[in-house]
Amino acid sequence: MKQPVRTNLADSAANSLRSEIAAGRWAVGERVPNEATLVDMLGVSRGTVREAVRALVSQGLLETRQGSGTYVLATADPAAALDRVRQTCLRDQWEARALLDVEAARLAALRHTPADIVTLRRLLAERGTVADGGREAFIRRDLAFHRAVVKASGNQAMVEIYDFFTAAITDVIGSTLRGELPEPNGQAHAEIVEAVASGDPDRAAASVRAFMAPVLLQLDRLLSR
Amino acid sequence: MKQPVRTNLADSAANSLRSEIAAGRWAVGERVPNEATLVDMLGVSRGTVREAVRALVSQGLLETRQGSGTYVLATADPAAALDRVRQTCLRDQWEARALLDVEAARLAALRHTPADIVTLRRLLAERGTVADGGREAFIRRDLAFHRAVVKASGNQAMVEIYDFFTAAITDVIGSTLRGELPEPNGQAHAEIVEAVASGDPDRAAASVRAFMAPVLLQLDRLLSR
DNA sequence: TACTAAAAGTCATCAGATGATTTGATGACT
DNA sequence: AGTCATCAAATCATCTGATGACTTTTAGTA
Question: Which chain C positions come under 7 Å from a protein C-beta?
Answer without folding.
Answer: 8-17, 19-23
